[in-house]
Amino acid sequence: MPQRLDPQALAKRNRRMLGGAFGVVFGMVGLAYASVPLYDLFCKVTGYGGTPMIGLAAPGAASEAEVTVRFNAATQPGLPWRFAAQQPAIRVKLGEEALAFYTARNSADAPATGISTYNVTPEVVGRYFHKVACFCFEDQTLTPGQSVDMPIAFWVDPRIAEDPVTRDIRTITVSYTFFRSLNDAERSGALANAGAHVGRATR
């Protein structure tokens, strides 16, 4: 004959099961909310997905090996700016800090504010491209007709030549896109591979 459970023991067991179920649900919800920033952090730490590494000083040229770094510029429709790279490409030695410039001009008759994102391609070089300073992820407001130079300081890790996956890569492309707001950038998907801001440097 089956043993009958005490009503209090049964109620206690049900409370434990209910608590466990709620714990699983809340854990899954928390993981869902955390997955995006955790993935973003993973990309920034590893360079995965073309996200440049940031904040490290250049060690100085480790060899005579060089790569070509190309510069792309784009502007979201609706932002009345002319935005372009001052140089289409430069040759840089591995391990040596380099400096390049973009120019932005407000062609409207009223102040206009933009904010930029960036990434590098091929995506596999993200871990070896170190951005020291640039103008990204900060609002830039230009008065009517105002033109400004926007520099980017960077270096390419010499280990790019030792990695079997990247050692034959001779050209890296750096792409900047100006949006009217970060919300616009997020809606466009541009933030997925973008790197973190490390310091404004405009003149």
Automatic annotation (TrEMBL):
Where is the signal peptide, in residue numbers? none
User: Looking at the Swiss-Prot or TrEMBL record, what is one Pfam family this protein matches?
Assistant: CtaG_Cox11
Provide the alphabetized UniProt keywords: Cell inner membrane, Cell membrane, Copper, Membrane, Signal-anchor, Transmembrane, Transmembrane helix
Stretches in topological domain Cytoplasmic: 1-13
Q: Where in the cell is it found?
A: Cell inner membrane
What is this entry's stated membrane topology?
A: Single-pass type II membrane protein
Would I find Transmembrane among this entry's keywords? yes
Q: Which residue ranges does UniProt annotate as crossing the membrane?
A: none
Which Gene3D superfamilies does this one have?
Ctag/Cox11 (2.60.370.10)
User: What InterPro entries does the record point to?
Assistant: CtaG/Cox11_dom_sf (IPR023471), Cyt_c_oxidase_assmbl_CtaG (IPR007533)
User: Which residue intervals are topologically Periplasmic?
Assistant: 36-203
**Family to which this protein belongs:** Belongs to the COX11/CtaG family.
HAMAP family under this entry? CtaG
Q: What does this protein do?
A: Exerts its effect at some terminal stage of cytochrome c oxidase synthesis, probably by being involved in the insertion of the copper B into subunit I.
Q: What is this protein called?
A: Cytochrome c oxidase assembly protein CtaG
Q: Which organism is it from?
A: Sabulicella glaciei
